[in-house]
Amino acid sequence: MGSNPHTPPLPDPVTPAGQEGLAALLARPDRAVIALDFDGTLADIVPDPEQARAHPGAVEALAALAPKVASIAVITGRPAGVAVRYGGFAGVPGLERLIVLGHYGAERWDAVSGTVRAPAPHPGVAAVRAELPGVLDRFDSWHGTWIEEKGQALAVHTRRAADPQAAFEALRGPLGELAARHGLIVEPGRMVLELRPSGMDKGVALTRYVRESDAGSVLYAGDDLGDLAAYAAVDKLRTEGPDGTPGLLVCSGVEVPELAERADLPLAGPGAVVEFLSALAQRL
Predict the structure, then answer these.
(1) Cβ atoms of residues 204 and 167 within 8 Å
(2) Are strands 265-267 and 247-252 parallel, antiparallel or unpaired?
(3) Is the pLDDT of residue 281 over 50?
């Protein structure tokens, strides 16, 4: 896209559909929904997920952009309240209408009320929580793995194992069997296997929110396999109805080729995503 001397240039989408999506966003920002993953997109990936925080400048960029668009939603696998704390989103001027959809949309936090709405936990989560340590103990490669408690889900991280990829592959089948016995599914990510209830993913959450917002365009940014469902949702929204809903798919980083190859706009990582959001805010 073009630029002027007073604003930084926006990167050009590499696909015609992405170019159309960005053009629609720029033409009618008041009808644009900006939806963003948290870890790996607004926050850098770190060895200990409990230490993840919003990338420097991310909150400022969102606060500058939010008043100029229809809405901004953070869609994450984390509990909504955790994402709000780690992101530093509460009480920020400019983010009064921010929405955080946690647990793939099962939970919802809004800045207006400052509260989280959430369903009762799936009973299978408690059963898996009790059995999971015993399953891990049966594998030599489990050393260095650890369990992240997510309330309505559990995640097994292998990033700190001696051989993270070997541990990931060794555990994928057994954890899938454990999840299936209790009515859950396994969502693979970057050196993490999440056991959670089925029926909700980022694509479902995004589609519901776009329709609720009556959006004229949608931007979605993510970095991992769990974001593929949101990508598919944007692809479907583009083709629904007489004109479809133009969309722009942004990929943060190139560590997940399945996502990067489908992106309209690949960016280098959270730092580049923040720069893009800041430039977009200045352009509007």
Answers:
(1) no
(2) parallel
(3) yes
The SS3 assignment for 72 reads strand
> How much of the chain is in helix, strand and coil states, percent to nearest 5?
45, 20, 35
Measure the CA–CA gap between 246 and 23, rounded to whole angstroms: 9
CA separation for the pair 105, 209 (Å, rounded) = 9
- pTM of the predicted protein model: 0.81
- Which residues are tagged catalytic? 37
Contact yes or no for 83/77 (Cβ under 8 A): no
Q: Which amino acid is at 73?
A: A
In this structure, what are the phi and psi dihedrals at residue 78, rounded to the nearest 5 degrees?
-70, 160
CA-to-CA distance for 194 and 74, rounded, in angstroms? 19
Contacts (Cβ under 8 Å, ≥6 apart) of 14: 263, 264, 265, 266
How do residues 130-146 score in pLDDT, each as one tens digit? Answer: 998 888 887 655 577 88
DSSP-assigned letter for residue 43: B
- Token pair for 56: 């420097």
